[in-house]
Amino acid sequence: MTYLGKPKFHHPSIAVNELGYTRRDYEGSMSTLCAGCGHDAISAAIIHACFELSLLPHRIAKLSGIGCSSKTPTYMLGQSHGFNSVHGRMPSVLTGANLANRDLIYLGVSGDGDTASIGLGQFAHAMRRGVNMVYIVENNGVYGLTKGQFSATADRGSKSKKGAGALDQPIDLVGMAIGLGASFVARSFSGDKAQLVPLIKAAFEHKGAAFIDVISPCVTFNNHAGSTKSFDYVREHNIAVNALDVIMGREPIEVDYAEGGSQAVTMHDGSTVVLRKLDANHDCRDRSAALATLERARIAGEIATGLIYIEDEANELHGVLGTADRPLNELSERELCPGSKALAVINASLR
Amino acid sequence: MTYLGKPKFHHPSIAVNELGYTRRDYEGSMSTLCAGCGHDAISAAIIHACFELSLLPHRIAKLSGIGCSSKTPTYMLGQSHGFNSVHGRMPSVLTGANLANRDLIYLGVSGDGDTASIGLGQFAHAMRRGVNMVYIVENNGVYGLTKGQFSATADRGSKSKKGAGALDQPIDLVGMAIGLGASFVARSFSGDKAQLVPLIKAAFEHKGAAFIDVISPCVTFNNHAGSTKSFDYVREHNIAVNALDVIMGREPIEVDYAEGGSQAVTMHDGSTVVLRKLDANHDCRDRSAALATLERARIAGEIATGLIYIEDEANELHGVLGTADRPLNELSERELCPGSKALAVINASLR
Amino acid sequence: MPIAAVNDFVIRFANVNGSGSASANLLFARSILRMGVPIGPRNIFPSNIQGLPTWYEVRVSEAGFLGARGGADILVAMNPQTFVQDLAAIEPGGYLFYDSTRPIAHLLTRDDIVVLGMPLTEICTKEYSDSRQRQLYKNIVYVGALAALLDIELSVIETLLRERFKGKDKLITANLHALKIGCDEAQSRFQCPLSVRVQRSDAAGERILVEGNFAAGLGAVYGGATVCAWYPITPSTSLAESFESNCARYRVDAATGKKNYAIVQAEDEIAAIGVAVGAGWNGARAFTATSGPGISLMQEFFGLAYFAEVPVVVFDVQRGGPSTGMPTRTQQSDLLAAAFASHGDTTHVLLIPDGPGETFEFGASAFDFAERLQTLVFVMLDLDIGMNAHLTAPFRWDDARAYDRGKVLSGEELETAREFGRYNDVDGDGIPYRTLPGTHPTRGAYFTRGTSRDRFARYTEESGPYVDNMERLLRKFETARRLLPRPVLKAAAKPTRVGVIHYGSTAQAMDEAQALLAREGLHVDTLRIRAFPLALEIAEFVREHEQVFVVEQNRDAQMRTLMTTDLELAPAQLTSILHFGGMPITARFIVGEIAGRLRRPASAQTLERVS
Amino acid sequence: MPIAAVNDFVIRFANVNGSGSASANLLFARSILRMGVPIGPRNIFPSNIQGLPTWYEVRVSEAGFLGARGGADILVAMNPQTFVQDLAAIEPGGYLFYDSTRPIAHLLTRDDIVVLGMPLTEICTKEYSDSRQRQLYKNIVYVGALAALLDIELSVIETLLRERFKGKDKLITANLHALKIGCDEAQSRFQCPLSVRVQRSDAAGERILVEGNFAAGLGAVYGGATVCAWYPITPSTSLAESFESNCARYRVDAATGKKNYAIVQAEDEIAAIGVAVGAGWNGARAFTATSGPGISLMQEFFGLAYFAEVPVVVFDVQRGGPSTGMPTRTQQSDLLAAAFASHGDTTHVLLIPDGPGETFEFGASAFDFAERLQTLVFVMLDLDIGMNAHLTAPFRWDDARAYDRGKVLSGEELETAREFGRYNDVDGDGIPYRTLPGTHPTRGAYFTRGTSRDRFARYTEESGPYVDNMERLLRKFETARRLLPRPVLKAAAKPTRVGVIHYGSTAQAMDEAQALLAREGLHVDTLRIRAFPLALEIAEFVREHEQVFVVEQNRDAQMRTLMTTDLELAPAQLTSILHFGGMPITARFIVGEIAGRLRRPASAQTLERVS
Ligand SMILES: Cc1ncc(C[n+]2csc(CCOP(=O)(O)OP(=O)(O)O)c2C)c(N)n1
Ligand SMILES: Cc1ncc(C[n+]2csc(CCOP(=O)(O)OP(=O)(O)O)c2C)c(N)n1
Ligand code: SF4
Ligand code: SF4
Ligand SMILES: [Mg+2]
Ligand SMILES: [Mg+2]
Known about the structure:
The complex is a heterotetramer, with 2 copies of chain A (351 residues) and 2 copies of chain C (611 residues).
Chain A: H1 38-53, E1 60-64, H2 68-71, E2 81-84, H3 90-100, E3 105-111, H4 112-117, H5 120-129, E4 133-139, E5 142-143, E6 149-150, H6 173-179, E7 184-189, H7 193-205, E8 209-215, H8 231-237, E9 238-240, E10 242-247, H9 255-258, E11 262-266, E12 272-277, H10 287-300, E13 303-310, H11 317-321, H12 333-336, H13 339-349
Parallel strand pairs in A: 1-2, 1-3, 3-4, 4-8, 7-8, 9-13
Antiparallel strand pairs in A: 5-6, 7-13, 10-12, 11-12
Helix pairs in contact in A: 1-7, 3-5
Chain C: E1 5-6, E2 8-16, H1 21-34, E3 39-44, E4 53-61, E5 72-77, H2 83-89, E6 90-99, E7 114-118, H3 120-127, H4 131-150, H5 154-164, H6 169-189, E8 196-197, E9 208-211, H7 212-222, E10 227-230, H8 237-250, E11 262-265, H9 269-281, E12 286-290, H10 292-297, H11 299-308, E13 312-318, H12 335-339, E14 349-351, H13 356-373, E15 376-382, H14 383-387, E16 389-392, H15 411-416, E17 447-449, H16 463-483, E18 488-490, E19 498-503, H17 506-519, E20 525-529, E21 531-532, H18 536-544, E22 547-552, H19 558-567, E23 574-578, H20 587-597, H21 604-608
């Protein structure tokens, strides 16, 4: 139980959430990533979001593939079960876990190599199925753990630390996720906590496949001039299409929000996401408009961030399959085994 | 040499092409597909296109994965080497073959299961690399060879022969190919030879990754009412965005074509593709417009066919890599082996 | 001199696939079974959907020897494409029944067989206007003719038709009509019945006729499997379909209409096993079904399941390999790919049923073994077991039987537990305790990974904890060795120094071979292996016999490699008898090989390979 | 009593990864080599990029025993995190050199070692203002100190620095300055040199210091590989990088700047092997490089290459398994996964080099074997060979050497050929002739597939042609057995009944062990296996010895399984000595095991597993 390595004492003055949990209760073991790695900032944002949403830590299951990014589940949510599976296959493992127990909250953490290179197929098909999860890609354009080769999200022409240029057409996971039927699709930046935390909270509130592409600079291998995934480059080129606030079901929606270019989206559990439009042309509830926004940004050489697309009443895998409300892993012989009488009938039909 | 099974006699009156070859010389062994299978019509179209383009049969390499569709290379181009590889992996095998000998013409034949299900990752990455090839998906929405299960291109809600409905978001390979950087992207219908043959010819003339999604009804498992890949359904719902003619380099471009809503695209080898616009809003040389066309069709419940997108002076893999003009498989010790002198220098540097 | 045989013959139908002959042939076969006579039907079909040759063979055996036999006593030649080769398959003194509409006298080159020509096409053309009908009913017409020729009771066939088309009276009358036409035509043309015929019996008894894939899917339902993820591949597809249809029948909540199961047709085999592993990790009984190519693709996940100790079941319906190989032929050639699956030091549990009966049993118990041992369990079927119907004892289930969920700690147990170490061998059997996500707010959470870790699931790169963990896994597999189904011994009538080891679908042919050899005065004890890691009884059996044959349906003697590796047996003690052409092994073949070998030095054949 | 040793000791550096110590340590090691003294450096690093413990070890041995030894005579403790465990690794009488800036007297629990404290941090803080400089030059300072302590000639280090920073004079002076500081500090504080020291020698001779991955990449360049497709994975990444850098140096056309090679960083391992197979099919010499997880993922394509008979080379740089296992540790545990790769009956050719020298040779000849045998050839390295630098004889290449492209028919040959059957065994060696696409307008075209086919590459599902083809493949592998590199025998000084079989990176430790055992009067003959299928000499070696040990760096005695399966050897004849903790095997370990075993019954240890 890796997280035990760290002492946990509750200082009386420390802030607690509705459950009486402190931030500490959402933390994991010490990170072994490089100092300054974008991934650590994302872990912090996830911890922050879970704390603010007052999620029960042990009701969250965190799954990942292989990579520096995929290591991060160890560094958060120490009270949650985690599964660091194999490279590029988190989506299928998460799908199976989800089928076994629909009552838990599923967090999938992956990298751009893990998702866009080896894992592209599984990513695509998990989105198509509408698996109820929060799927976060910590996107740095390189394979960090294997020392900085380009991944499939590296922009054509961007330069590697050794000076080599990326040759192939980059994959835009956000555009792909929308095309594949994901019902909550966002992009953000590890350096922009103000934008990232609400997005993660909204994603947790969303029922269905929620995907967030978080650009997360690799300070060791891809944070130099000539890289399009460096802190500086992303700061300069990212344009937020909207800003959002998540308002828990109980809280009233403050009026001034509801005014002007803002829309309120009610999530399945009654909470509300209030969106303030920053790009007038963008409508995150219209798939075609969302795709058009991405095209505009691409042509302008900008990085569109924020909530790019959301489908309010999306169906998720269990709904599609019509599985029982009780978790499958709780069913016993009584619900599962047809018994000897039924077998006698079957035998009779086979003569 | 399977094609030997079939006697080949040249009747004096039979039409021959510039090379003096007859259609027969482009045929393969007898098809073992179901009578009426759309795939056989596509094979015929490919044979027709190769014949009219006067391609040297033995300079074509035909590769495929596994499936009824992937069997078809056996039924065409008997003088060409063929490789029926493994399920979903034709793109990588073709890429390797192409790297070994850039002088041959590469034809990849696949199915929707082969490409959109198990092969999605390889399909995507081959497109990103701009492998110089003609990649044809014979798309029937099902796994024919395994008796009719839905594939990833089956439209949500469309009914299987046994009455089950397709549950997941369908994959539009055309939209995906454009997003992934394919430089020639078209969609057609096995039942529309007039449209299909010119598209295949243009694809062969194109330098770079040329992708054609050909809807090809499975008469045995997916040609019933309720299917969106049946002959009837596709006939009713397909809307051609343009019509094209391929004019070989030598021939003059007839004037009447060049008029009105038509554009002439010059291919890398000097031949010309003349496009007659049928959808005024569609511009196949503008990626954003092409994607918009697909969105419009999707919303209207139509199937957009024709040349959807073309990038005139696209670069292909060898250009990107800067490989030698001579095929790599022809190089000998002289070009390949640095020899003992170089080795002495290396040894010295290692002490 | 025509063959004379009652309730003991082989009849083979040569058809074209997609022509609707399958159901007619099955009707024919079941009618014999309904007369109480044991049958062993087999399909020999192409990897193709329509238009290619396909054969259906029925072994009729009062004595209950239902394995493939080879040769045909009666050949029903409905496919001109294969006429010549079919003709050659007929035993001397056998019968040829063919469609004599088109004259083919020139092809009838054999004078040692009896030829029964009947103008089926002509008859049907007269009778039916619609071409599809002509096609379909032609099959029923020949069934009628065969009923007359073989003395099969029409009433029995009629009952079968009524059961099958229940409620569709039109179809029933139409079929009965066609049946009668065939019967009458035969009566009028030939001297019925033939010297080869069927006679009522009670030899079949209570036994059922069922395919292994159906049994496996049903077994998984009874075994409590709730998550199935699969990708279509011959010959395993019908296994997943069986699970689906039986779930639809027994697992849907009557009140809510909700499903107590989840089935995902994955995008490929890697995703299929990934889903199963994820579900197994999260406490559901999960499985996938596949065949050779899928086994190759799933290797990485197999290694993860072994090392991370996740319970999951994989049904491998073996077909002809290597590579795409022969998708519609049978083989036992995935043993090594399964037993040692994945890179690094790995071993996996294999269950090897001999037919549908045991497949049902293992299909259920595999989940107990997987959860008890916290590992991957393979159930190794093959195409012959999976896709052919076999006569077997009725399925049985003890309603008192409870699932063995293995060592899973509940919330209460975690409360009281002194300490929890996911990979801590508390009981000395190599099996640690596990917890499921969501069980307890503050205890029992751990991180599952494919990398090395210590007893408390903490990541480590140190040799000590790594070796400690790898050696515990060896202990766990010793526990498995003791836990798994024992081998089945069939002793010879007389004491003998010759033993034969076999497994899986070879059983039917082996039992017959044992009897045939005994007739020749060659007595052999047989031992049927049912699981890997191998039971120690197997080593004893080898020690107790001077000469031991190992009969396998693969080229490379894969079980023999498992025996020498896992039981430290000397190859020289084990003479391989290998049959790997893709058709089910026959008693004739085994008898020939063993009888021959008993006069040659034991390991001669196998030594050839290295000399 | 401090250890006294000249040119015979082990020094170990404990550092933090990402702190720039690597280059300083290499500088130190190479300076000893430049003095003519043989060295064996080793990295022990974490699967992490920055901030975790990492060790660098240099074995110095005039006698040329350069395998890992175990223990440290001198420990350079630069990482407080691991101080305690590092302290424990010091041999009695050994030296501890540490940064005494912060007092750690309380940790110095051992009284049987000599402690050399030097306030490195303090010194550098005084000397340098910039923190990064302090960090970097601290490493050079301790190199200077060690030079004084171990009597390493400063001039040698200076030369190395001048070579390395050629043209960057500023850097040179800065480094020399730091070096001098360390040297002077040491001189002033300690009595230099120590009783453990270096002395000029010519023992190293002409040998070069090189990593196996560099050698493999270079070998592939010399062997004429033109297509490389790979996916990054430790520890194979630097192999592909070596091919790339050496191609950039020797394969770019001076005139056009065009490349006589193509490298694709694929999206995953399945694509990587797919590209290699496609290129091999089309006549290019193609390869991929990977490690365990990649080997698992590539299984399906391995089966295709075997059955469709496509020449292709796979470098497997083995790491600790199973699953993700221990990515930065060494093991020989992929033998079974490679030799029997994929479902169905398959076997593959393995080449097993013992170090960089042979890796260069095999890295080139693997392509000859692949094209001659028209099959997949594995070159089995491991992390120790691949990522550690080893002292080895200079690379040699005979300019007269021509590539063996195997049986490929040219257009002319096709013109005159009577008939062409792709899978026709014309020569009786099991190797058929192949043609390349585009060769001839009307002859030689055929269809390659993973399904069964006849001698003329026509699809078939019949047993006859299938068996015929599968048996030809067995013949082909007998040809391989004769063609591949022979095992290497090292006879004992005195005749002995004890033999030891080993392979790969075990060689260094084994050679030393053989010498050490001889000193104890225990003489053993050793035989090093270099290829699979196994040479018959190996069986002879076993027969000629009463007791045979098989030394492996895996848990499951995988080579022993290959030996019993492929050579029909009895397991009882082969006593396993297994080392699988992930650190390179040592002579000490082997000696201990063998000396111990020679007093116990041969197969005791291995029998435990089944009893
Ligand atoms: C099957 C397999 N192939 C390759 C590897 C080696 N590997 C480990 S992490 C990684 C890439 C990680 O890149 P990404 O997902 O972007 O994560 P990052 O380290 O950049 O956060 C690779 C190739 C592996 N572990 N498994
Ligand atoms: C690895 C692997 N998995 C599964 C199969 C079984 N299989 C053969 S063809 C096929 C699907 C073919 O579908 P598609 O590509 O759409 O071709 P179609 O038959 O519809 O033309 C499958 C699943 C296989 N041959 N290999
Ligand atoms: S290598 Fe890059 S991605 Fe990995 S931890 Fe370091 S900074 Fe983060
Ligand atoms: S099954 Fe479908 S796809 Fe296959 S051959 Fe028949 S019609 Fe064509
Ligand atoms: Mg990354
Ligand atoms: Mg299809």
